[in-house]
Amino acid sequence: MTDLKKGIQNHLLELQLEIDDIFAKGRDSVVSEVNIGQIYGGMRGVVALACNTSYVDPYSGLYIGEYTTDEFSNKLPEEIFFLLSTGKFPDKKSLLNFQSELNQRAQIPQYVWDVLRSLPKDTHPMTMLSLGILSMENESVFKKAYQKGMKKSDYWKYSLEDSMNILAKLPALAGGIYRIRFGDGHLIPHDPSLDWSGNLAHMLGVNDDKGFADLMRLYLVLHCDHEGGNVSAFTSRVVNSALSDLYYAVSAGLNGLAGPLHGLANQECLRFILEIHDKLGADPDEQVLRAYILDVLNSGHVIPGYGHAVLRVTDPRFTAFMNFGETNCATNPCFKIAKKLFSIVPDILMHYKEGKVANPWPNVDAMSGSLLNHYGVNEFDFYTVLFGVSRVMGFCAQNILAQGLGQPIIRPKSVTNKWVLERLRAKG
Ligand code: HAX
């Protein structure tokens, strides 16, 4: 058994003991009430899910396991996947074994490239990523084991196998999508001497700068997971809860991530910054920029990269990207505009619509595009693919743990307007 598998097994035992304790202390205790506004309002604030991979504190941001963003942001993505699924960082030997496993599974079947190359040239790269993964569904070891009648207690082990196979192929898949969609179509081979994010940087073929490989590492670490209730993670979990295998579940999660209010926001952010650059110049005057932002708001548009459904402070992942920018590309015009926006937008949003914007602070997407732009990844449409590569770690870890804990199919109850009106009438 690999160290990762052992680690997950131990983690599942710990989590199960905690759940047993919770149930013993108060399985029927009420922790959240749902009002009618929430039924019609995206279930915002309703506590209805347990997820032990990560936690978003409204005031201190993302925790992976017990670790704050500051504490994990200098790690490798492979270490982060270990942490998400076992609750602990791997030691050196376990890390090397895991990396070697990924290297052995990195080869992408030729039919995936045939599928991707057959698509219209202007297909969105997120469609290509989702389809690339879905096209490999026939390789699912979970599906094959299920058909042979595997025990429920073994589900997570086969999902781990599927996860490893999917994760191992992501750098080559994303790199290939970039080369087919934006380059000359020539694929750069996987280099087993490089780690997971190093290979992604290498296979994109954009930039050999060490700073770019460092940015890819940071990017893949910071986007890995954000609790269980966000659109993409929740979608992935719902699909997997029906025992659709991880190829289906990961592809479904990525389809949610492709929405402009979720993962696609990062491509909107750089577009917004470049528009400012074109219209107001590289170093816009503060008052002029302020007026521009107000115009955008008054025309009914959101300011991309600002606001969050859960966070109520500057996203620490934004801060990590900003610190990276200060060290590596402080004079880049887009970075400078992104920084200037940070000094202006929160104040405007705080007072906009009588304080209706719950969180006027920047989220992770407000800065990352400027950094990618600095290293020559200028195709906005590709940004969400990088986000997706990282977020697949969270989808996989969440689904493996949920299966290991024997969680059932997800099926909340919906009601009709008539039901709600009758309920109100009965209450008087
Ligand atoms: N600019 C202008 N108005 C904003 C705003 C922003 N950045 N953020 C919120 N608002 C508005 C909302 O549109 C809403 O107005 P209406 O009631 O008139 O529709 C009001 O403020 C209240 O919304 P909220 O409760 O503050 O925010 P929500 O939880 O509903 O939505 C969003 C959270 C992230 C979707 C929202 O802040 C937004 O659209 N931000 C811009 C897009 C963005 O950056 N998305 C990326 C989020 C991070 C992420 O998930 N990445 O994957």
TrEMBL record:
Q: What pathway does the UniProt record associate with this protein?
A: Carbohydrate metabolism; tricarboxylic acid cycle; isocitrate from oxaloacetate: step 1/2
Q: Which molecular function GO terms apply here?
A: citrate synthase activity
Q: Which UniProt keywords apply?
A: Acyltransferase, Transferase
Q: What is this protein called?
A: citrate synthase (unknown stereospecificity)
- Cross-referenced InterPro entries: Citrate_synth-like_lrg_a-sub (IPR016142), Citrate_synth-like_sm_a-sub (IPR016143), Citrate_synthase (IPR002020), Citrate_synthase_AS (IPR019810), Citrate_synthase_sf (IPR036969)
| Record's keyword annotation contains Acyltransferase | yes
- Give start-end ranges for the coiled-coil region(s): none
The record, for SUPFAM superfamilies, names: Citrate synthase (SSF48256)
EC numbers? 2.3.3.16
Example of a GO biological process term: carbohydrate metabolic process
Q: Which family does it belong to?
A: Belongs to the citrate synthase family.
What Pfam family is a match for this entry?
A: Citrate_synt
